[in-house]
Design a protein that fits this description.
mainly alpha; 4 helices
Length: about 80
């Protein structure tokens, strides 16, 4: 179980769950793909930063992932405010 976390595999599993979530939202609930992407992108970027932190990635990958998550979050909030 510890290997799931230390190797970052837990993040890969969560990414797979997010992919299923996206498919359900698009195919079953008929949400527009662009809307689904803006909803899930901030979380995906945060997960990328988590994976980097768990695997000892360079700090610039962590900073870039977090910055991209913030920008994606602002885009999502802006879209929802309209």
């Amino acid at each position: 179980m510890a290997d799931l976390f230390t190797g970052g595999r837990i993040v890969d599993i969560i990414f797979a769950v997010m992919a299923v979530e996206a498919l359900v939202l698009i195919l079953v609930l008929r949400r527009p793909a662009g809307m689904v992407a803006t909803m899930l992108l901030p979380g995906a970027c945060l997960l990328l930063a988590l994976r980097g932190a768990l695997t000892g990635a360079h700090w610039s990958l962590l900073a870039g992932s977090l910055a991209l998550a913030f920008v994606a979050h602002l885009v999502d909030v802006g879209r929802r405010a309209r």
